[in-house]
Amino acid sequence: MRFLLSVSVLLGLAATPALAADAAKGKAAFMKNGCWQCHGEVGQGGAAGKTLAPKPMPLEAFNVFVRNSNGQMPPYPKEILSDADLADIHAYLMSIPAGKDYKSIPLLSQ
Amino acid sequence: MARKDRRRFLTGFVAAGAATALTPPLARGAEEESAQKELAQNTRAPSALPPSAQVAAAETQTPHELPPNRIGGLPGSDFMVDVIKTLGIRYCPANCASSYRGIHESLINYGGNKMPEFLTCMHEESAVAMGHGYFKIAGKPLMTLCHGTVGLQHASMAIYNAWCDRVPMIVIGGNDLDASTRPPSVPTFHSAQDINALVRDFTKWDDTPVSLQHFAQSMVRAYKIAMTPPYGPVMISLDAGLQQEPAKGHGGDKLYIPRYVPTAPPAGDSGAVKEAAKLLAEAQNPVIVADRMARTPNGIKLLVQLAEALQARVVDQGSRTNFPRTHYLSATPSAVPGADVILGLELADFWNVVNSWTDNGEHGVGRNSSRIKQGTKLISINASDLITKANYQDFQRFQVIDIQMAADAEATLPALIEAVRSAIPAARRSAIAQRGEAAKKAHAEDHARTRQAAALGWDASPISTARLCMETYNAVKGLDWSIVSQSGNVSNWLTRLWPIEQHHHWLGRSGGYGVGYGAPASVGAALANRDAGRFSVNIQADGDLMYAPGVLWTAAKHKIPQLAVMHNNRGYHQEVMHVQRLANFRNRASNYGGDLGPVGTRIENPDIEYHKLAESMGWWARGPIKEASQLAAALREAVKVVQSGTPVLLNVWTQPR
User: Fold this and answer.
1) What backbone phi and psi angles, to 5 degrees, belong to B529?
2) Which domains are delineated in chain B?
3) Mind telling me how many Å the CA of B397 is from chain A's nearest CA?
4) Of A14, B274, B598, B653, whose Cβ has the fewest other Cβ atoms within 10 Å?
5) In this model, does residue B44 exceed pLDDT 60?
6) In this structure, what is the dihedral angle of CA atoms B399, B404, B410, B413, given to the nearest 10 degrees?
7) Domain residue spans in chain A?
8) Contact with chain B for residue A109, Cβ under 8 A
9) What distance in Å separates the CA atoms of residue B151 and residue B157, rounded to the nearest whole number?
10) What does the pLDDT look like over B223-236, one tens digit per residue?
11) Is A65's Cβ below 8 Å from some Cβ in B?
């Protein structure tokens, strides 16, 4: 069943015209849908979820993962998180600037 | 309970000379008589009335005819205090209750409120958890008193935590057994046939003494059992009648106090030790995983010796400080899959070391998978194998082990180290040294990766948990610090970033994952640190604090300082994802009800002002601190206040994890 779902999601994505993603809306969707709870508000990750930003995975791979995750993260179906919201979330993650080099932070380089 | 029979016992008790180390405060006759005289002399009628003949006599004459007290002898609970004093128990955190009023009165008046000192607690769960935290610093157990029914019900979760965490605690529950004489109504609601049944599944031993001599034996036995590895809580049901009756021995025998002699911990079978040493010595890539191995600071030294002899990487699961995090052989769990021999030391869950479970299988059932390669040999040394019970499932999933020793790991390590040194073939020495060089490189790489991960979200608001931990470290790094508790989940930044090397640096967690452990355990551990002159740091979660926040008052009342830095993520974060996960599996959006997480999992709207809560109970407190840039100055000020002897709480808003 999961395989069929993956295929349909991929086909669905291929048939969908490119979405005009909005980082500000993406941040709101990131918070509203609970992504921040495991990945942190700026996608920094932690014990509960992987680091998402900076440099998130490409949108296509991101979509496939979110819809079909069979790892620790539960899959988010379209009924819960629309393609538009997902694209906005990706745009938000793309907008997060690179973190500092730890060597430039005295508390981490000591 | 044959109370009348007990009353036939002959009077008088002794501390059995050869059988006890007691310095008895028993010869209280003259002292007590003098106190009675003083009391009688101080008993006056209102000054406006002329004294009656009786009052005049009381004011002017020595009342020779009066017995020393109403019960016609020393109370049984005085003898109980004498027994307790032989065990060197320093504190008795407890919430007062009528069913133990006899021993309560004896502790504070006859016993002088010393050894043990009564600490006023506002919840029995707090009292037990204080003992839990105290032991992990002091290495000595505390006792607590509670109502045997309602109080014990309050205490039970904390007792379960102590059981799972292999921590000794002596729990004494008051109970009035004699239905024909006990007070009706409330005290009868608070009585039961067998109060110990409530906690029998998660205590090592329990008893219901029916005489004072029986109590003396039970108390010393309880202490001895609790303090024999594997450690654990024990329970004594204490009859109210026994506490209040005159101290008398059986038919002419004088009461005596058995001497406490520690029991040696169980060490591994010599044949099994040799076999394990051979496997380890000949392994290509042995990995050691330790959870509750280091019962004492010496355990750390022993594990370093073993690891260095093998140049084996050590994964410290962190229920205690088992291994210095700064040592080049200290490794993350990612070392496990490459191992060909795994030595597990006091692991709470060996299955989970070598397997994984993902909560994302079909039909809502989790998925199992192995984390190790086929043929990997497993060795276990675990004293918990000696006390496995049936009902509660703290023994975890069954794992087949190649060499399994039901023994205390710390007690077994000296023999294992010697056996390993003898078993290493000369031809292997060079390969083993090379393994050490590879470990140094891996450790350095882990170090850099961890710090880079900590840098992500460094300036975020609310404050990142990595920043929270490192700002706190920076404020206390010059002191003899001790992390007394870490409740909630801060992505393990404390054990990943702080230079944890000594036994008191890191105490582990609750054991049974019963939430509400953090705050009271931190107060108990801070008490032991106060006595040792150390500085206590507590990363305090919001949800944990609200189970029984009255422990804040206990800390202020008894002048127990600590620096509590809150990890206030405004939710029961562990539960957030459980509900979200199920909603996703069921293809429906989770109802957030206007909050930032599923209904029932958030602690917001309104936000709790923890700093005001703490302040109201005598703490110095500041907050809410939401910006990382505000944290360092607040911490600097807070440390100074803690050093003056006052407990401090900083209410810091944090990222979820």
Assistant:
1) -65, -35
2) 3-28+74-249 (3.40.50.970), 270-439 (3.40.50.1220), 456-570+607-652 (3.40.50.970)
3) 20
4) A14
5) no
6) -130
7) 2-98
8) yes
9) 11
10) 999 999 999 999 99
11) no
